Amino acid sequence: MKITYYGQSCFLFDIGGTKVLFDPFITPNPLASEIDIDSIECDYILLSHGHGDHVADAEYLLNKTGATLVAIYEIVSWYQNKGIENVHPMNTGGKVHLPFGTVKMVNAIHSSSLPDGTYAGIAAGFVIESAEKTFYYAGDTALHMDMKLIGERYHLDFALLPIGDNFTMDVEDALVAANYVNTKKIIGMHYDTFPYIEIDHVEALELARRQQKELILMEIGQTIEL
């Protein structure tokens, strides 16, 4: 499984040849200025919630690539009104079987509205089960006890967790979340993009090391294989 990071909470997964993009916020992000958005190919775009720093490039990429949008019902409806036809609406607790694996929509504790102020349902995360790996993409969230259900029901290979604080969990809460979902490998997200969420990388990595967790802080544009 190959993972490419495009900044903030945007990751492209190559899962058995199917390309799955999460929360595209690239062109407005000065930290991602070196990324050529037109080079990005994807088959599916998963949106965790409606905030601009997660959906800014979604409409453009959906139109450009013909990817299928997977998101909560209210977000899907908003994009359908913009002419997007390839969609799969979901809601928390539901799952869908797609060519790359099973997508389960799980709870997140966070607000959600679309860039024009439209109600975007509730924020969500995703658990992805594939033939290669099983992982949890938490989206924007506070630490919450429902995460323990993920640890009880799934055998995660890793989790993508927000660590920037202020709007989401900080690193300390993310380490607790990793215990709840029963994984030792964390890919950090939702940090450094704005002054509110800048973090001390050395301190974050040391906190993880002390708790015997592997915290991966990817460089924007970097691709890793897990």
TrEMBL record:
The keyword Hydrolase applies. GO terms for molecular function: hydrolase activity. It comes from the Bacteria. InterPro entries: Metallo-B-lactamas, RibonucZ/Hydroxyglut_hydro, UPF0173, UPF0173_UPF0282_UlaG_hydrolase. Keywords: Hydrolase. Residues 7-190 form the Metallo-beta-lactamase domain. Pfam families: Lactamase_B_2. NCBIfam families: PRK00685.1 (NF001911). Belongs to the UPF0173 family. HAMAP family: UPF0173. This is UPF0173 metal-dependent hydrolase DC20_16995. It comes from Rufibacter tibetensis.
